[in-house]
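Inverse folding, one chain.
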């Protein structure tokens, strides 16, 4: 249970950090890369934290 809590907390911290970067930095290339990194991290977070795995060995 704590593993999912810490995973959610760390994802929330990452989203907060990237949103601050996107809000205050006025560079379109940095925004595109930040959004791409956030999408990849969100997908990995979903796979590791919430998707049911068939075999846990």
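Residues assigned per position:
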């Amino acid at each position: 249970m704590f593993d999912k809590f810490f995973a959610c907390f760390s994802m929330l911290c990452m989203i907060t950090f990237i949103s601050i970067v996107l809000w205050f930095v006025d560079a379109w290339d940095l925004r595109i890369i930040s959004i791409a990194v956030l999408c990849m991290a969100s997908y990995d977070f979903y796979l590791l934290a919430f998707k049911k795995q068939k075999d846990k060995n």
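The CA atoms of residues 45 and 51 lie 9 Å apart. Helices lie at 2-24, 28-49.
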